[in-house]
Amino acid sequence: MEVDKGKGEAEETRKVAEADRDTVTLKSSDGKLFEVSKEAAARLSTVLAGMIAGGSIDDNGTDLKQIGSEALENVVDYCNKHANSIPSAALISSSISFNTAPFKEPEEWERKFVDRLSHDALFDLVEAANFLGMERLLDVTCHKISEMMKGKSPDQIREVFNIKNDYTKEELEEIRQELAWAFYDD
Amino acid sequence: MSESSMCRGRPSSPALAAPLPDNDDILREIFLRLPPFPSSLPRASLVCKRWRRLLSDPRFLRRFRAFHHRQAPLLGFFIAYSGGPYFIPTLEPPDRIPSARLSLDAPYHKAWTFLCCRHGLTLILNRTDLEITVCDPVTGDQRCSAIPPGFKRHDPRLVKCKGALLCDDHASRVPLEAFKVALLWTDGLQLDTDLQMFASFYNLRLVCGVTSSQHLSRLIIGWASLASWLRIRSTGCSMVLGIMASLG
């Protein structure tokens, strides 16, 4: 009984030590490990917050099999940068009522953060943000992608995103006539 | 999300652009952040059928409206014209909506007075039939309601009238019945010494539904003319409400 009690205490101590750590370790699909601030991870990702609260964070690296190392590195970088920046009131309110909140412009550092990414890295990051329930990062990355369409014709948008045109000529003409005013400058 | 959907193929050559994530939820989030200009969604709809399906979904359009609430651009304005409210666009192409698309034609032989435009709806006084008409210029949908009994005792040609549309729900597109109409009018010329002023508050949900109509005393006229109420535009409705509140 004494031994069991001792074991129980040791387990308890280990749990407390884990809870006291201020970082969590995440493992990408290709096995790379990344350390991230626990506070920022819990604040910025609903999925990680759930895992931290539920005790399913693995000390040796929590497996995130759906996220590649490049995207995870960007996620961690974003979380750490976020932890170091003072969140504005606009940012906080945006994360509270994301679906209906009026659009909030990305902050200067967030803009720089996504501007330096290649298209491929940006698209991987948007998927990672969506998977991890990171509303603000999803907001910032989706905003960047929507900016890539601004002022472009349908042809130019297809080119930017490598999309196949599956309309017939007749279908296109019909829609263009219906909304002729929206294509006056084409 | 399945694992396969997360692994997009890398472009085989650097010249080929990277494809967007194959995920409707993410595409919706991207479309939601398109600028709220008139040409944004039509142009994106023409890219491919999948995009058109997502963009024309009424649930998406409701979200888009709510997301850009209070950031919608001014498309233009209406001017009072004998043939009905005439739309003057203010944006540049491709967001310039033609006048003919939103201008409203008064029915033949009906005298329409344009009162105001709010929440994307126009409020019209039909002096021929003594009705007020709320009209959605985009859909052409209209609701008519008889004007208050007090109005009818006076020569409608002399009546000076101001009106405003009110709605509790500002974020989403709501049915015309949800709107209330505030009217403020005099029964004659402004210089008339016996001038009387009236206010009505309508609920469009009720046919001919005057929920409150008051004959205001000359004391209030004195106060109102001080405020040059005939020139009041945007504050007209709050003034009517203020008067209503003071009358209990």
TrEMBL record, chain A:
Pathway: Protein modification; protein ubiquitination
Gene Ontology BP term (one): protein ubiquitination
The name this protein goes by in its record: SKP1-like protein
Positions of the SKP1 component POZ domain: 23-84
Domain of life: Eukaryota
Residue ranges occupied by any SKP1 component dimerisation domain in the UniProt entry: 136-182
Keywords: Ubl conjugation pathway
InterPro entries tied to this protein: SKP1, SKP1-like, SKP1-like_dim_sf, SKP1/BTB/POZ_sf, Skp1_comp_dimer, Skp1_comp_POZ
Region (Disordered): 1-21
Key word rRNA-binding present: no
Entry keyword Transmembrane: no
Family label: Belongs to the SKP1 family.
Biological role stated in the UniProt entry: Involved in ubiquitination and subsequent proteasomal degradation of target proteins. Together with CUL1, RBX1 and a F-box protein, it forms a SCF E3 ubiquitin ligase complex. The functional specificity of this complex depends on the type of F-box protein. In the SCF complex, it serves as an adapter that links the F-box protein to CUL1.
Assembly with partners or alone: Part of a SCF (SKP1-cullin-F-box) protein ligase complex.
From TrEMBL, chain B:
Biased composition (Low complexity): 11-20
Domain F-box: 20-64
Signal sequence residues: none
Pfam families, alphabetized: F-box
SUPFAM superfamilies membership: F-box domain (SSF81383)
InterPro entries: F-box-like_dom_sf, F-box_dom
Region (Disordered): 1-20
Name of this chain's protein: F-box domain-containing protein
